[in-house]
Amino acid sequence: MGTIESCDHLASAPWDPDAPDAQRTINFRELRPTAAVAACRAAVAEAPRLRRLHFQLGRAYDRRGANQDAFEAYRRAAELGSGAAKVNIGILYQQGQRFEKSEAKARAWFRDAAETGIPEGMYCYAVALDNGIGGSPDAAAARTWYVKATERGTTKARDALVRLELDGTGTGLRCD
């Protein structure tokens, strides 16, 4: 297996539209960071223009808890057009663990991710609008983005939409 394939095998996210094989992805909690960091660093060196490799390297660093390194890898992937990286940058800012906490920056990154058309970004932006993360709650806008994410197959967005309709903003949902 080559370096790019190794990185893909060890760190592709199930919800990343850039993942080369949707059947061969790995959930974040199952990711083995030491092996993934090594494989993805080698893959990035081999193919530095492939945004998915930078994103996957970011996931590996993120899983390791090296959030500044994760941010740098995600930022490079985002510069290359990765909506998935934008989602994860937003999560880093929202959580603020071993990283700057800024709900306003989180919301802005989620918006950017949503506007790329990635369903996970749409969901995260809707959650921010719903719960007033980084700004005032906005039920109408949250509803719009939950609907868009639902139309693209995001089950948790459909469930969130029902909660929003029944209970109004402030559902307490999370994007992570």
Automatic annotation (TrEMBL):
PROSITE patterns: TPR (PS50005). Keywords: TPR repeat. The keyword Manganese does not apply. It holds the Pfam family Sel1. TPR repeats lie at residues 51-84. This is Tetratricopeptide repeat protein. It comes from Methylobacterium longum.
